[in-house]
Amino acid sequence: MSEPDKRTLRRELLTVRNRLTPDDADATGRALAERALELPELARARTVAAYVSVGSEPGTRALLDALRARSVRVLLPALLPDNDLDWGEYTGPDSLARVQHGRKTALFEPAGARLGPDAVTGADVVLLPGLAVDARGMRLGRGGGSYDRVLARLERAGVRPRLVVLLYDTEVVAHVPAEAHDKPVHAVVTPSGVRRFPGA
């Protein structure tokens, strides 16, 4: 019954998110950037796979620009027709293109050269979107499976970048329904701080 439970939890969390204003997301983004940049993993990272927040997601723009200011190579995803992710490099706001994928929310994707789905295997840290995380570090995504493919690709390649999910404070919950293929993250960053999951 795990998948129906996930759908219910997703609906509840998205209802709360959808009440937030763009100002809420921007303020959260500034706080997230400050907290995330305190992570030793990001301080040491040469390459970070990240994403551009959209809608009511916790804002990531401030963090992307702060990483670039540190001369970190930032990779951003581009959604493929099969829901897998290709990657391109972020070199500043001008390197983004707004892309409409059918009736889904428009995404901001790298406008430059595509590096291929395996480019993520060169990242030292992977910043993951999500809707919730629990005390075990189990992340609830949106259900499209794109990041399940990313995590499987990392595992097949035998690489272990640090996995960090960016959330609002209220999205750290007691329990997330998990299935056999779900992988825990190493840490969550919220506006109020960082929580680590040593079992990941």
Could you characterize the architecture of this molecule?
With 200 residues, the chain is α/β, with parallel strands linked by helices. It has five helices and eleven strands. It has helices at 2-17, 22-36, 40-44, 61-69, 146-157, and strands at 47-49, 73-79, 85-90, 96-99, 107-110, 125-128, 132-133, 139-140, 162-166, 187-190, 193-196. It has a seven-stranded mixed β-sheet with strand order 3-2-1-6-9-10-11. The longest helix has 16 residues, at 2-17. The chain is globular.
What are the defining features of this structure?
about 200 residues; alpha/beta; two-stranded antiparallel sheet; 11 strands; about 30% helix; globular
The assigned structural class equals alpha/beta
Order of helices and strands: HHHEHEEEEEEEHEEE
How many helix segments? 5
Task: Write out the strand line-up for the largest beta sheet, numbering strands in chain order.
Answer: 3-2-1-6-9-10-11
Would you identify the regions where 5 or more consecutive residues have pLDDT less than 50? none
Distance between the termini: 24 Å
Shape: globular
Summed up:
This protein has 200 residues and is an alpha/beta fold.
